[in-house]
Amino acid sequence: MAKNSKEMFDVFFRSKPANMLVELRKQSKNKYGSVLAKEVDCTYSHAVKILQEMEKARLVNFEKNGRIKTIALTENGHKIAEYIEKIKEMLP
């Protein structure tokens, strides 16, 4: 039985972290963690753990404005998200 493109993507990547990078790339403005968690269908606490690991890897930056914390891709994070999108498009 042939796998669909989402199933094939999941074979190569962990879907939540990969989709977080892609969703961050789609927006021109920074996002809130709660909004990003909803977009990739995971809990806020799980999203924060993933984002903290991405911050350690210098893929995202947290920007605090008063009480509000937003997330932005770094230059390297932007490039990786672009590659992930290209791979998704190439999968059958």
List the SSEs and their pairings.
Layout: H1 5-12, H2 15-26, E1 31-32, H3 33-39, H4 44-56, E2 60-65, E3 68-73, H5 75-90
Antiparallel strand pairs: 1-3, 2-3
Helix pairs in contact: 2-5, 3-4
Order of helices and strands: HHEHHEEH
Strand content: 15-25%
Q: What is the radius of gyration?
A: 14 Å
Topology-level CATH name of the domain at 31-92: Arc Repressor Mutant, subunit A
Q: At the fourth CATH level, what is the homologous superfamily of the domain at 31-92?
A: Winged helix-like DNA-binding domain superfamily/Winged helix DNA-binding domain
Largest sheet: 3 strands, antiparallel
Identify low-pLDDT runs.
Answer: none
| Main structural class | alpha+beta
The CATH class label of the domain at 31-92 is Mainly Alpha
Helix content: 55-70%
Number of helices: 5
Strand order in the largest sheet: 1-3-2
Calculate the mean pLDDT score and round it. 87
Assign the CATH architecture of the domain at 31-92.
Answer: Orthogonal Bundle
Distance between the termini: 13 Å
Core attributes:
globular; 92 residues; three-stranded antiparallel β-sheet; Arc Repressor Mutant, subunit A; alpha+beta; 61% helix
Structure description:
This protein has 92 residues and is an alpha+beta fold. It has a domain at 31-92: Arc Repressor Mutant, subunit A (Orthogonal Bundle). Helix content is 61%, strand content 15%. The chain is built from five helices and three strands. The protein has helices at residues 5-12, 15-26, 33-39, 44-56, 75-90; strands at residues 31-32, 60-65, 68-73. The protein has a three-stranded antiparallel beta sheet with strand order 1-3-2. A hairpin with a 2-residue loop joins strand 2 and strand 3 (68-73). It is globular and about 45 Å long. The model has no long low-confidence stretch (mean pLDDT 87).
